[in-house]
Design a protein that fits this description.
Blueprint: E1 3-8, E2 13-20, H1 24-37, H2 44-60, H3 62-73, H4 77-100, E3 106-109, E4 123-129, E5 132-136, H5 150-158, E6 162-165, H6 171-187, E7 195-198, H7 203-209, E8 213-219, H8 222-234, E9 241-244, E10 250-253, H9 255-274, E11 286-290, H10 293-303, E12 310-311, H11 315-329, E13 335-338, E14 341-342, E15 349-351, E16 353-358, H12 359-363, E17 378-384, H13 387-394, E18 400-406, H14 415-424, E19 427-432, E20 470-476, E21 497-499
Parallel strand pairs: 3-21, 5-6, 5-8, 6-7, 8-9, 10-11, 10-18, 11-17, 16-17, 18-19
Antiparallel strand pairs: 1-2, 3-4, 4-20, 12-15, 13-16, 14-15
């Protein structure tokens, strides 16, 4: 098998050999070891201990982890320090979720011979872990959406062991963080194999096809995610595939907002679409901006913002970005208000850019490429002449992770309410007078949306992400001694329950 190399995107040069690509037998060994470890995760208190210990060990090794991640991604120590803090917070938050037990969704309906239309048996329902979860790391978040990230944290909290497919853009970081998680498992009295790690392109399909893999969590491209999704569906026993794929994340700026807050909106957009060199899944990729002087002022503020060039994560992404910008800029009626392109500061460096187009061209369906995500620091500003034209463009959009609207001070009801409701039909998260970059780890967060933003209705951020790795089981007329403790009449574990319709 080929070597797995850690590469510095600032220089384009290999840093070190990390491992060999995983052969089919390596994937089989990892999945079988994880499946054998499943019973050890039965105790929710032990899972919580694992997650808290993992957070502590990641913090202890933080200096090496951050330095390695920065060397492999060029995302910067400040950004990665914050990402490590977020990752550890997420692990501890899921420890609390595991302990509380509300995610089990326990419902008990006692037998009722007088029930209508028919007598009711004793019914007791809760949720159980699916089994081994295959986690595919994201390129752009080497910690929070990779080996120790939300998919892993939520799966372990649910009681599911994981096997992670490391991303080739940060293999050394993946090894370091997997080592910390496996050490945490042993400290908690669990088999280290509750967390496994595999490398290489071929390992991905092998992991999805493995008969003991019970579900998949994926963050990546539409092309790669759709291929794995179809593979999961084509198995003799299809399994859930929770994929976060691609998103345009439209922004609507109303005429009143542009007239009253042009400088602030322009500066905010510039910061948002270039954050992390545009390598965020929630980057605003399409902005509907009114024609006229107010819209011109917003656009001027965007293009005059000082945004430095920088390296993208890998050569493939850089090539795709440059090709995507060139092909979009060549479309009839498209102009470059700020020219994106290559930069000499580093081998993989690019300059941010802004493309402009008349909204009528998008509404007519002639420029479909502009309605597809271009991963990297570029955004499309579509100028609309009327609300009818603006809404026609919204009617052409696919599903998104986010949709944003900037309103004027007096736009808080009426037509604005209708616009917000329309955006809710396009995306999983609607942002008002803010920017979508930055996904808060909180119970109410929804990070997912209609296809192609994601392949399911679930979220990959927040406490309800745990629901992806569970399935319900109902026990009917089962003697108390044969029931799981969570469903017994005296509730020995004290889990939240809904009994005969009362919480």
């Amino acid at each position: 098998m080929s070597d797995v190399l850690s590469v510095d995107p600032r220089t384009g040069e290999p840093r070190e050999r990390v491992a060999a690509e995983s052969a089919p037998q390596d994937v089989d060994r990892a999945v079988r070891a994880a499946a054998a470890a499943l019973p050890a995760l039965a105790d929710r208190a032990v899972r919580a201990d694992l997650l808290r210990t993992a957070a502590a060990l990641l913090e202890e090794g933080g200096e090496e982890i951050i330095a390695t991640a920065d060397a492999e991604t060029a995302l910067g120590r400040v950004r990665l320090t914050g990402e490590l803090a977020r990752t550890c917070y997420q692990l501890r938050a899921f420890a609390e979720v595991a302990e509380a037990g509300a995610f089990l969704d326990v419902i008990i309906d006692h037998a009722d011979p007088a029930a209508r239309p028919a007598p009711r048996p004793d019914l007791r329902r809760y949720k159980v872990p699916l089994g081994v979860v295959a986690v595919f790391s994201a390129s752009n978040f080497p910690l929070a959406f990779s080996v120790p990230g939300g998919d892993t944290a939520s799966a372990l909290a649910a009681g599911c062991p994981v096997v992670v497919k490391a991303h080739p853009d940060h293999p050394a970081t993946s090894v370091l963080t997997a080592r910390a998680l496996r050490a945490a498992a042993e400290k908690a009295g669990l088999p280290a194999d509750v967390v496994g790690l595999v490398h290489g392109f071929a390992a991905g399909p092998e992991l999805v096809r493995h008969p003991l893999t019970a579900a998949v969590g994926f963050t990546g491209s539409v092309r790669g995610g759709r291929a794995l999704h179809d593979l999961a569906a084509a198995r003799p026993r299809p399994i859930p595939f929770h994929g976060e794929l691609g998103s345009l994340n439209p922004v609507v700026v109303t005429e009143q907002a542009a007239a009253t807050r042009a400088a602030a909106i322009g500066a905010g957009l510039a910061a948002s679409y270039t954050q992390g060199l545009g390598q965020f899944c929630v980057k605003p990729g399409l902005v509907l901006l009114p024609e006229g002087a107010a819209g011109d002022a917003v656009l001027d503020a965007v293009v005059t913002a000082t945004v430095p060039a920088g390296p993208l994560l890998d050569p493939r992404m850089r090539a795709a970005f440059l090709d995507g910008v060139r092909s979009r800029a060549a479309l009839p009626g498209v102009a470059q208000a700020l020219a994106a392109g290559e930069d000499e500061t580093a081998p993989l460096a690019v300059r941010p850019g802004v493309l402009t187009v008349a909204a009528g061209r998008l509404a007519a369906g002639s420029h479909a490429e502009l309605l597809e995500e271009c991963f990297g620091p570029v955004t499309v500003v579509a100028r609309y002449g009327s609300e009818t034209e603006r809404d026609a463009v919204l009617g052409t959009l696919p599903g998104n992770l986010t949709a944003t609207v900037h309103l004027g001070a007096g736009e808080r009801e009426g037509a604005a309410a209708g616009l917000v409701a329309r955006l809710a039909g396009l995306a999983g998260r609607v942002v008002v007078d803010g920017w979508p970059t930055g996904v808060t780890v909180a119970p109410a967060m929804q990070h997912g949306g209609p296809y192609p933003a994601s392949t399911s209705t679930s979220t990959s951020v927040g406490s309800t992400a745990i629901e992806r790795w569970l399935r319900p089981v109902c026990f009917q007329d089962t003697p108390d001694a044969l029931l799981p403790p969570e469903l017994r009449e005296d509730n020995p574990l004290g889990v939240p329950r809904r009994v005969d319709g009362v919480a």
